[in-house]
Amino acid sequence: MIAIMLALCTGLAFCACGAKEKEVVEKETALTTVGFSQIGAESDWRLASTSSMQASFNATMGYRLVYDDGQQKQENQLKAMREFIDSEVDYIVLDPITELGWDATLMEAKEAGIPVILVDRQVSVEDDSVYTAWVGSDFLLEGQRACAWLEAYLSSISYEGEVNIAHIQGTTGSSAQIGRSDALEEAAEQMGWNIVAQEDADFVQAKGREVMESMLEECGDLINVVYCENDSEALGAIEAIENYGKTPGSNIAEGEIMVISFDATEDGLRQTLAGKIALDTECNPNYGTVAEKLISSLKKGEIVPHEYYMEESQFSGLSEVNTITVDGKTYDVTMVTDAIIAGRNY
Ligand code: AHR
Prior knowledge:
The protein is α/β, with parallel strands linked by helices. It folds into 2 domains: 32-137 and 285-309, Rossmann fold (3-Layer(aba) Sandwich), CATH 3.40.50; 139-283 and 312-342, 3-Layer(aba) Sandwich (Rossmann fold). Helix content is 44%, strand content 20%. It has 11 helices and 15 strands. The protein has helices at 2-29, 44-56, 74-86, 103-111, 139-156, 175-191, 205-219, 231-243, 266-273, 288-299, 338-342; strands at residues 32-38, 63-69, 91-94, 116-120, 133-136, 164-169, 194-200, 225-228, 258-263, 279-282, 307-309, 314-316, 323-326, 329-332, 334-335. The strands form 3 sheets. Strands 7-6-8-9-10-12-15 form a 7-stranded mixed β-sheet, with helices on both faces. A 6-stranded parallel β-sheet has the order 2-1-3-4-5-11, sandwiched between helices. It has a two-stranded antiparallel ribbon with strand order 13-14. α8 (231-243) links the parallel β8 and β9 (258-263). α3 (74-86) packs parallel to α4 and α7 (205-219) crosses α8. The structure holds alpha-L-arabinofuranose. Alpha-L-arabinofuranose is lined by residues 42-43, 45-46, 120-121, 176, 203, 230, 232, 262-263, 283.
């Protein structure tokens, strides 16, 4: 009898133990759910950033990615955030379209115990503990580097005429717009450049073309530089300049219109190689790997940095300026080639 009871007990213990092991294995193989609120699909750069996230957060990597396309509207992103909170995702990744308007929703996520990683753009909030970390670009520095290049280039060709800039902005109130616009406005004041037109084209190619068309209508004879806040806008502006009968190029003394752009996407760099974009300052969309590393550290209970800046470069087809300096720091300007374009992933 004792032997039977012992056998039964051992059997039960074995069963219980097996169930526990199964539970552990299931827990270990369970996917971590990440809700990703993306801004939209307004530019090639944006598509590259979505691909970067999808490549880093998938079942092979141990994640279930719940992707939401905000279609360029903050209200859609706020709705997506609420759904992520209600469905108790493990982590939220948010690329905020504009800087303002996130305090309440981010606080809700914090109170629900869901860490939020911001990517690409930043938020302006009263209490920055409402998000766990941010990874993205230094948009002000990008703009400062572009303006430092323009200054260096004009001096390298001993250009002494007026600099009349058409400024095609990105989505008003977004970090990318704020940083790049601030840099230009500050440089224009210091250098005596004129910003003769300024308008938002929402980082979209068709709007970039329309905005450039109307600027050319209004002051086409004056404009000799166009500062576009992304490649999509630059591609649209180039179309408009050519349709207007002018040439996008660096010889502004001879009536060409110089286009300056941001992102360094494949199409942007092709136009840089062709001489239609004079300078393309990189905005690096490959933050998926960094966001994944942050989440994987958080899962282990580790402390992560609150801010992480992506490495970025700048490209030109013009050989006059090889380096530029901003705030005492020197940055290389890479001569764009077919091989460089082929070696990039966006
Ligand atoms: O926030 C990054 C900017 O947004 C990129 O420059 C632009 O292409 C995108 O739409």
